[in-house]
Structure formats: structure tokens, C-alpha cells
Design brief:
The protein has a single domain, classed as Hypothetical protein af1432 (Orthogonal Bundle), CATH 1.10.3210.10. It is built from 9 helices and no strands. The protein binds fe (ii) ion. Fe (ii) ion (FE2) binds next to helix 3. The site of fe (ii) ion has 5 residues, from helix 3.
């Protein structure tokens, strides 16, 4: 049971670490794009998966001491291309280009922040390779959603990552 003090700390944590104005701006942009997706089944799954991965990325970034805002924003962008176009092939690279174009237009992020977000989106399909900490957070957040939505369905390159992640998160 949490004490009142720790609940206040949680609220402050949420305010400072998660609900930044920039996060909200990106989320509104992504949600606008996703609400135009047809058919409704793809739209709903896109909204669900992208939201879940963004939140898991925020969670993992906090656990690992990385930048939660950038992790959450990378999560919002990560599958936008796939859902917006219906094309899965090379969707990570397509998504990285989409993210870069939009981020360059908005002028909300520094060059380094943009590179971190775009890089994470670009590499997120490469689950069998290890990249930078933020890239790894996005890949793991994506795998975590796969674990929770479809337990036991791991094959190939996601299996090892899924097992390590379950150990880190103390899953039984
Ligand atoms: Fe994904």
C-alpha cells in the first residue's frame, strides 16, 4: 500500500518525466494520423499498440535511467509508417523518415534529441542486434507488448530478447 507521500512523489514523477508538453504535441500529431487509418480494426490496433509501446518505453527508460520523454516519443513514432500506409516491409526505415520530416518541421527538439528519436525508430525492427540504450528500450518495449498480447508466441530473434526482458522485469 502506498503512503500519501509516495503518491505525491508518483504524481510529481508523472508530471516531470512523462507528461511533457512536447510529448503531448507529438501524441496529438500521431493520434490525428492514426484516426484516419482504415479499416477500423487496423486503426484500433494501431492506437492500442503505439500507445502501449510508448508507455512501456517510458517505464523501461525510468528503470534504466534513460530519457523517458524521448523514449516515449520514439514509441509514438515507431510503427506510424506501418499503420498509416499499411506497409510492413521496411516500416522502421519509413517511420524514421516520417519522424525526421515532422521533427525537422516543428523545431521542438535539439539536433541530438531528433537523432536519438529517429535512430530508435530506424533500428527498432533489428531485434537480434544491440544498439544504443534508447534504441534498446524501444525494441524491448515493442517486444513487451508482444509478450503481453500473445504470451508464448516467440520465435527467432525476439525470443532471447523476450527472455532477458522477463528476467529484468521479474516476470515469473
Ligand atoms: Fe511495434
Amino acid at each position: 500500500m502506498k503512503s500519501a507521500g509516495s503518491l505525491t512523489a508518483v504524481r510529481l514523477f508523472l508530471k516531470e518525466k512523462m507528461m511533457t508538453e512536447r510529448y503531448e504535441i507529438v501524441k496529438n500529431y500521431i493520434y490525428d494520423k492514426l484516426t484516419a487509418v482504415e479499416p477500423p480494426k487496423s486503426r484500433n490496433e494501431g492506437l492500442r499498440h503505439i500507445t502501449a509501446v510508448s508507455q512501456y518505453a517510458i517505464l523501461l527508460a525510468n528503470i534504466r535511467g534513460e530519457n523517458a520523454e524521448l523514449a516515449g516519443i520514439a514509441g509514438l513514432f515507431h510503427d506510424l509508417y506501418a499503420y498509416a500506409t499499411g506497409i510492413r516491409k521496411e516500416h522502421a526505415k519509413g517511420g524514421a523518415h516520417m519522424a525526421k520530416d515532422w521533427l525537422d518541421q516543428t523545431d521542438l527538439f535539439t539536433k541530438e534529441e531528433k537523432e536519438a528519436i529517429v535512430g530508435a525508430v530506424y533500428f527498432h525492427s533489428e531485434k537480434g542486434t544491440v544498439h544504443l540504450p534508447l534504441d534498446e528500450i524501444l525494441k524491448d518495449a515493442d517486444v513487451l507488448d508482444h509478450i503481453l498480447m500473445n504470451p508464448g508466441a516467440f520465435i527467432g530473434k525476439e525470443k532471447e530478447r523476450a527472455e532477458k526482458l522477463m528476467e529484468e522485469l521479474h516476470f515469473a
